[in-house]
Design a protein that fits this description.
12 strands, 3 helices, mainly beta
C-alpha cells in the first residue's frame, strides 16, 4: 500500500529535525557594532559544539577611543579602554539538518563581566567629568537562529538578548543617564560625569544581531 504523501513528508521532517551534526568549533565576528560605532571595537566569539544538545559560546569585545571628548573646555577625557566578556551554554533544536549543514533555534543563558577605564586630559577639571574605572558583573539570555556546517565551512547566527548586571563605580550624564561599561557605543561617545555610584543595577539589550564566521 502506498504511504500518503503527507505521511512521507512528516517522516522526512521528523528525520531532518532530529538529526544533528558532530560537535564543531567556530570563530566569528559581530560586524554590526563596528559599522555603527565607526571606531575601534572588535566583537569576537568562539563556539564549541558540545554535542547534539548544547554549544559553549565565549564572546570578547574590546573597545577603545582615543578621541578627546569634552563636557566643557576644562573637562575633557583623553581616552577610554573597555572590555565586555560573556560565556554561556546554548540549548536548541535543529529546524533543518542535512549532511554537513544545520539550521536551528537556540537559547543561551550567559554570565557577563565588563570593565572600562576613562583617562582624563592632564589638568582636567573633575567637577563635570569623573575619570576612573567602572565594572559590571551579571547575567543574561540570548536567543535566535544559528546556521553552521562543515560542508560550507560557514557559521552564522541572528541573535537578540537581554541582560541585568550589578555595576560598580558607574557614572552617567544628566542629559542621557548611566554610562556603564557594557554599553560600549555609549561609553565611546560620551564622557562620564559624577557621581559614580558604588552599586547600581544595569539593564542591557544585545543588539549585535549578527554573527558571521567559519567552522573548523
Amino acid at each position: 500500500m502506498r504511504v500518503p504523501s503527507f505521511v512521507a513528508l512528516a517522516l522526512l521532517c521528523s528525520a531532518t529535525t532530529s538529526a544533528h551534526e558532530a560537535p564543531f568549533q567556530a570563530v566569528w565576528v559581530q560586524p554590526v557594532a563596528p559599522v555603527v560605532v565607526q571606531g575601534p571595537i572588535v566583537p569576537l566569539g568562539w563556539t564549541y559544539g558540545l554535542g547534539s544538545w548544547a554549544d559553549l559560546t565565549v564572546e570578547m569585545t574590546p573597545y577603545y577611543s582615543g578621541r578627546v571628548a569634552c563636557i566643557t573646555p576644562a573637562s575633557c577625557r583623553q581616552s577610554v579602554f573597555g572590555l565586555v566578556a560573556t560565556a554561556g551554554v546554548s540549548f536548541g533544536r535543529p529546524i533543518v539538518s542535512v549532511s554537513g549543514l544545520e539550521l536551528g533555534w537556540m537559547v543561551s543563558p550567559k554570565v557577563l563581566v565588563a570593565v572600562a577605564d576613562e583617562i582624563a586630559v592632564p589638568g582636567a577639571d573633575s567637577l563635570l567629568f569623573s575619570p576612573g574605572v567602572a565594572s559590571e558583573i551579571g547575567g543574561g539570555l540570548d536567543f535566535g537562529l544559528e546556521l553552521h556546517g562543515q560542508r560550507l565551512g560557514l557559521y552564522a547566527a541572528f541573535v537578540l538578548g537581554v541582560s541585568l548586571s550589578a555595576g560598580f563605580g558607574v557614572g552617567g550624564r544628566p542629559d542621557f543617564g548611566p554610562t556603564p561599561p557594557s554599553w560600549p557605543a555609549v561609553v565611546m561617545a560620551l564622557t562620564t560625569g559624577p557621581p559614580r555610584q558604588d552599586v547600581m543595577w544595569v539593564p542591557g539589550i544585545n543588539l549585535n544581531l549578527l554573527r558571521v564566521g567559519m567552522v573548523f
